[in-house]
Design a protein that fits this description.
This is BZIP transcription factor. With 104 residues, the chain is mostly helical. The chain folds into two domains: 30 residues; 69 residues, no CATH class. The chain contains four helices and two strands. Strands 1-2 form a two-stranded antiparallel sheet. It is elongated.
Length: 104
């Protein structure tokens, strides 16, 4: 009985380790990367990595910290969008456009 229980626990530990590895990989894929040697190309690559599903995602995407952090760290605070300025305004406008596109 103890041997069976030990084998079951070993199996559960192995499964949990595999799940942890998968979750760590997923976290790496969605987390903003620290951009070493920041160049315009690196910023563009990171931008598209994070925002690649922007037109198919729900509006809550714009409320995520990683998107907001990337924009704050790479754009001028007074970035101009339409007739207004700022990262927050940009996120609000993008959200409105995605909502509009979803209705079409």
């Amino acid at each position: 009985k103890l041997r069976t229980q030990a084998q079951n626990l070993e199996t559960e530990v192995r499964v949990l380790r595999e799940q942890v590895q998968k979750l760590e990989f997923q976290l790496q894929m969605i987390s903003p990367r620290i951009i070493e040697n920041t160049t315009p190309w690196n910023v563009v690559a990171e931008y598209f990595r994070l925002f690649r599903f922007v037109l198919t995602a729900s509006a809550c995407v714009y409320e995520t910290r990683m998107h907001r952090d990337l924009l704050r760290n790479t754009m001028a605070p007074g970035v101009i969008i339409d007739d207004d300025q700022g990262v927050e305004t940009m996120l609000e406008r993008w959200s409105a456009r995605v909502d509009f596109a979803a209705e079409l």
